Amino acid sequence: MTKSSAAAKNPAGYESSLREIKPGVVAYKRARILAEASALFYEKGYESATLEMLADRLSATKPFLYTYFKGKSAILSAICEAGVKESLAALDRIEEIERRPIDKLKASLREVAEIIVARHEYLVIYQREMMNLDRADAQRILRLRHEFDLRIGKLIDDCVQDGAVTVANAAGMSIWIGGLLSWIIHCYRPGSKRSAEMVVDQAVAACLRLIAVD
Amino acid sequence: MTKSSAAAKNPAGYESSLREIKPGVVAYKRARILAEASALFYEKGYESATLEMLADRLSATKPFLYTYFKGKSAILSAICEAGVKESLAALDRIEEIERRPIDKLKASLREVAEIIVARHEYLVIYQREMMNLDRADAQRILRLRHEFDLRIGKLIDDCVQDGAVTVANAAGMSIWIGGLLSWIIHCYRPGSKRSAEMVVDQAVAACLRLIAVD
Fold first, then answer.
1. How do residues A174-197 score in pLDDT, each as one tens digit?
2. d(CA A169, CA A173)
């Protein structure tokens, strides 16, 4: 039975699968816009970049952009929050997969380091253009980053409870781990001498040294 | 004998003491301009800030600014290079004072952390406005930062030779130490909850943990 014949026999099912496809299409188009906007902001800086330039790069129109984002500032906000949102999602995923606290921590550090490498451009833009964010967006992203620190602190704490590491101040150390991970964007850019794998390995090793794990 | 009577009796000496005073005055005025420019760029962003605004804040004129700097871009460059130049000068100073490699390293980390706290605003501007630097300035500052990494790597290496620490890759580790120190600007701002002393202590402790020194 083909999909369309199934749909004909079950119009309600067809409707619901359309609803299922739609968010995927929206997500895809938003992602395409963000990728192109990120390249544009990275190259020209946020203030010099215009929505016309962005529409041109996408062979689209400004109204097309407005279907997906309220404006240039909403695009910047989505770029700036991508890294931390993906990192939090990775922590959720790993929470389900790994059992031992130390394995959770190690897997989390590695996945977040990989996200930072993959989102290099987005994170450089966040660092550069932070002050161009709307105040509410800037605060929302800071809260997400704070949540990330808390969750890493909790992971370290669980390792301490488990006897796997000894750290006097897990919450304090999580902030410096955040610093090491963020430093990846200064150590790696696509095409740089050091490979992504090498930088991820070094960053994870450095984080683990901070909490005295080999 | 007053200074002026000494000068009258010794015109050559007077001349030379004037020459000695002059650089101090120039340095003072340049520092005043940089401090005010830094506050202005920090508040408004480099692109929105103008030399007129800066002159106003200093109750001075644009020609006064041009006596000390070639233009807005030269002021940005001086702000961006201040932190790393002062850090390199601190390493030179400590090289002369301390004898044991591990003491040199510890003193260096602490002094550099203190410079970063003191230069918070300058370093935030460097991070934000990097792409507005003239290409040659940007490269010069990167070379200075690279020199800093090399010198920290050398200090770690000396500690390894001395048997004080065990690090497989001193040069590699110096880059992550640079990352931890740079992270200070995200952990501390004047008036923030954590005190400058606490952040400096934590940063130095984290750096030493990286090379397994308690």
1. 999 999 999 999 988 888 778 999
2. 6
Q: Which of A127, A187, A209 sits opposite B212 (nearest CB)?
A: A209
Q: Is A149 on the interface with B (CB under 8 A)?
A: no
Predicted ipTM of the assembly = 0.81
The answer to whether B152 touches B178, Cβ cutoff 8 Å, is yes
* Cα B79 from chain centroid (whole Å): 9
Among A52-56, B75-79, B189-193, the range scoring the smallest mean pLDDT is B189-193
* Percentage of chain A exceeding pLDDT 70: 90
Rounded Cα–Cα distance for residues B180 and B207 (Å):
7
CATH superfamily of this structure's domain A79-214: Tetracycline Repressor, domain 2 (1.10.357.10)
Domain B80-214 has CATH 1.10.357.10: yes
Distance of CA B5 to the CA centre of its chain: 40
Going from N- to C-terminal start, the domains of chain B cover 1-69, 80-214
Q: Give residues 175 to 214 of A whose Cβ lies within 8 Å of B.
A: 175-176, 178-180, 182-183, 186-187, 202-203, 206, 209-210, 212
Angle between helices B135-161 and B72-97 (to 10 degrees): 10
Task: Give B-chain residues touching A148 at CB under 8 angstroms.
Answer: none
The CATH fold assigned to A1-69 is: Arc Repressor Mutant, subunit A (1.10.10)
Q: Which of B172, B179, B212 sits opposite A179 (nearest CB)?
A: B179
**What is the number of other CB atoms lying within 10 angstroms of the CB of residue A106?**
19
